Each structure stands twice: as structure tokens, then as C-alpha cells.
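[Solved] Which block belongs to which protein?

Original post:
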Amino acid sequence: MPRLTRRQRMFVNCAPFNDARIDDRAMRAAVFRVRKADEFAHQRAFDRAIAAVAEATPIPDEVTEWLSKGTFVAAPRRTWKQMLRNPVVAAIGIAVLVIAGILVFKLVDRLNQFPGEVKARHLLGVAASAKSVLLDPVKTEAGSLGDYFFMKHRLPHYDVPAEFAELKTLGCRAFDDEEGDRVGQIWIVDKRMQFFLFPAERDAKTGAIKHFAGWRYVDQDRWTGVVREQNGVCFMAAVRGGEKDLAPYIAKAKE
């Protein structure tokens, strides 16, 4: 026998006596060193003889009564259907599906996002905390306040769309938001609705206005707004409620 370490000799002594491939790398290396040695060949021959005797020896009934059937019969291989029924595999699959669903939802939400939506959400928060005492008391029709914003605050195109122009107002004001943009706010008698007019979003590189067509809904903290851009100014009607509270006004534009 070649010179072996104690660990290698241990692997050789318990090496399989058939020609099946050895999966363990350390044992495979040890067997490779002694594969041509006569002592190893005698050992394998002796192990085969002992295995043949063991297989030919019947097991007494007294012994089998103490042992389960699974001791002598190899467990069947699990199919992919059985693996799917495993609670751990099912839990992992559900978690992956939930994560994938969230990612898809965020992707779709981002694709549907319109220019100025972030500011519109912020202004919905302003609407939720606004007090009517902060406004200048101006009781008139909302459609006539475009001239008011232009004459007093030098804000051109801060006009209320025709869908909301006939609504009566309680007051209005102009203020600077966190980004330094001038925002016009109007408080409406009907449903305690509030209007916001603010500059449309611009491209960071070119400075061009990011236009979008039609009305877009946005919601934040149980408040809902509907936004439209025209002449570089976004108009938003906000109400505490859902889209159904604003839908009758938007429907006027389709008629």
C-alpha cells in the first residue's frame, strides 16, 4: 500500500467495494492512490464476499417485528408534485409571487404617473390641513378668479376650467410652496372643495414644459384630486372623498 495519512486510510477502509462513482472528493482522491495496490484489491474482494453473505442471510421474523418496513426499503424519490405540496416550498412560492406582484404594481404605477403628480399629492396634504381663515374672502364664481390672480399676484393663465367655473367661492390666496413655485388656492362652497393652480413640471435639462392631455386622478390621505394641464399651468380640484365625488364635474367636458 502507498504511504497514506490517517485520514486517507480511514477513507480507504470505508470506500465502496463496487465500481460506482464516488461523490466525496477526499475519498475519491484516497481511493485513486491505492486503486492498484494488492492490499486494497484484497480488501474489496473481502467486502464483496461479506456483502454477498449478508444479502443471502434471511432476516428472522423476530427481528422484523421490531423494525419498521422503511428500515429495509429505500424511501421513494419525491416527485415535483409532492415537492409543491410541501408547506415550505408553498410558502416560498407565495412570497415570490407577492414580491413579483408588488414590483409589477409599482412599475405600472410609475408608467401611469403624469408630470406634476408628486406636487399634486403634496397639495392634497395642504388641502387636508388648510383653514378657510387663511384665505382672502372673495365670494364670486370660480371662473372669474383668473383675472384676480393676474392683477393681484401677476400669475398668468391661472384660470379655472369651464367644468368648475360656475362654482361659488369662499376665498382664495397665492402662496409659495417648498420649491418656490407660486400656487393659487381657491376654497369652494360646494362640498368644501378646493382648487389649486400651480406651474406645470418642466424638463430638468431643456426647461421645456411637460405637457399631458386630459384629466388625471390622484389621491392622498383620503383626499382625491383631478388634474389637468393647460398653457403651462396645472389645475387641480381636490375633495375629501373618492373619484365618484369628482366624476360629475368631469363628465361635463364630455357632453
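(Second protein starts here: sequence line, then its C-alpha cells.)
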Amino acid sequence: MPNMKEIKDHIKSVKDTQKITNAMYLIASTKLRKAKYELDRTLPYFNALRGEIKRIFRTVENVDNRYFYPPTGERSLPGTYGYLVITADKGLAGAYNQNALKEAQRMLSQHESGDNKVFVVGEYGRQFFHSRNIPIEKNFLYTAQNPTLQRARNITSLLLDLYKKGELVKIFVTYTDMGSGLESSARTVRLLPFNRSQFASATYEERVKIPFEFSPNVSQVLDSMIPSYVSGFIYSALVDSFCSEQNARMTAMDSANQNAQELLDELSMQYNHVRQSAITQEITEISAGALGQRRYTQRLEGDTEP
């Protein structure tokens, strides 16, 4: 059994660790609130942009655009698929990174017959793919911390440039959806090409009776709108993933704090037990010494009697 000094050192070490986990919990909580606030400020613009794209499809029939499947519906597209995988820069966030990477591996396995280009946000994901010899686009190195709209635009510019050149025929985004905030889940969304049903009205709105004039034409109007819409989606995915990471880290740190407190309670009980044992041992030794001394004194007194 460890002695009192060893137990006290262990208690001090656990308390120092608990201070770190408490600090990480508070930092994650602050980052989560800040990121959600920034997303809420930008969402109205992108929702309005989506509404305008829906209005175009309610106004004009059979719109032909490279960002959309034809009116006949989805079809198989041979060629290279692009996968944007969003992870964290570090661990200590529960199963957040593992779930996102499992989802990415599942998607990659579905297109093993064709070429794939992987774009990774987050150092954790980059290390994961490098360790498995899965090539990553070298010119795409972004941190997952502090997602910004400008960074989303840079990512969009790169992906759309490859898409317009024909180097990518489909683009998928794997990220972690924050959902209601109680439970996050990794998911994959096909970013391009769009299905027209994504912009169909759920309420079957009446067609626009007053015709719009598109200059120079509908396709070029969509060409100018889609990059902004894609930027908004990627920014939303970055923020959702970042918020999910912080939420997972808060959960992990809260669990660590609870485990540390349980360990401290156990160590305190063990320390008290060892201390009580030491006190009992000292009392026993003193009592035994006093008894021995008394007997020795009595024996001396008995020897000196006439």
C-alpha cells in the first residue's frame, strides 16, 4: 500500500490535471458560442440566396446549367470524385474525429473503381490519411480552428476551379452535423452537381406570373450565384464541424472532471485510512512503551524493597 506522501503527491497531480480539463471545458464553451454567433449572422444572406435560386426554377423551365443535373434526373458520371473531409486539428474530443473519418472511408470505398481526390481540413485528418498512404491534395492545407467566410470562399474557389475544368465530376463534403446540439453525427452531402429537387418548393408555390428578365441569360446568372451559395454551404459545414468538435470536447472534459473527482474521493478515503492506520500504530507503540516502562518501574521498585 502506498504511504501518505505518495498518496498526497497523487492527489496533487490529479488536482493539477483537473485544473487543465476545467480550463479546456471553459475555452471550448466560449469558442462554441462565438462560432454559432458568427454563423447566425451570415445564415440569412445564404437563405435568401437559396430562395432566389428557387425562384429561378419556378420562373424558367428546363434550365441548363453545369452545376445541375439535367431535368431528366441524376445519372452516373464517370470520372474523378472530390471529397472534402472536415476534421479537427487535435484530439481530446471524444469520438468526433473517428466518426468523421469512418464516414469518409465509407464514401471512398463506394468509389474505389474510379479516381478520388481528397481535400482535408484539419491536421488530425491529414495525419490519418498520410498514415494510410492515401494521397491528399498538397495545395489544400487549412486549419480547422476559427472557421471564417473568407476561408470558405478560398476552399470554394479551389473546388469549383477543378469542377469547371472537368478534373472533378462530383464533389462531396464529409462533416459533422451539430443538429440540435444534443447529439452530433457525421454525414456526407453531395455538393455538386445539384439535384433540381433540392431547390423545389415544399409548398408547391404557384409559378411566378410576372416574367423576369435575366441578363445576359439564366445560365450565367446561376453561374454567378452558385459560387456564393456553395461558399455558404461550406462555411456552414466548417462551423457545424467546429461547433461539434467543441461540444464533443466539452463532453469529454466534463467526463474527465467527473472521473478526476471520483479518483480524488477515492484517494482522500485511502489517505484518511492510511493516516488513521499510522495514528493507530503510533498510539499502539506509545501505549506499549508506556506499559513496558510501567512494568519496568514496578519491577525495579520490587527489587529495592527490604
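Accepted answer:
You had them paired correctly. Confirming on the second one: The chain has five helices and four strands.
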